[in-house]
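@channel sequence for tomorrow's demo:
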Amino acid sequence: MQNAFYEPRQKIERAKQHIDELDKAIKAFVSTDFCRIGVEEDAKTGEYVLNYKMTKPVPESIPLIIGDAIHNVHSALDIMLCNIVRSYGGTAKYTKFPFFNTKEDLIAALQGSEIGIAWPQITSLVVDTIKSYRGGNDFLYALHDLDIDDKHKFLLPVISITALTNVTGTAGGVTQIALSLLRGIE
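structure tokens (generated this afternoon):
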């Protein structure tokens, strides 16, 4: 069974490389002047409002890298399950790691499959330990949802200002603002 995890680990290692590449791409993007911040007077209330506008789009490489990292982790699960099934003598030709909305649906699907019929211990592993259903392992299920979404559209990160520091200003005729901002991608 030890060899059953070699290939999935390789996929995880590749995902880590994608995550490092993503970190560098995000840091490079947020270090640019990707947004403008200014103060405007609200015509209705007369109050001054901090205004934030994006000046550059998120580089297309960022959603591609996100998708690649997610897909590698998801593929690691598929490969792991296929290798386990093969180690028990199965063919695993159409085997993929199962995800279902409920624990009951997962159990029913596995019990009706080659996996559940031939190897109930694998069913127990997936249902009771890994918990690949909503409410079981929410992180893993979210990863599955993101991998599906990535097959149909770009996963676009959300840009937000996470903090403003050293802000000063005066109301009236002159408005002065000096600020440092910390930017982030969620």
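heads up for whoever presents: The mean pLDDT is 85.
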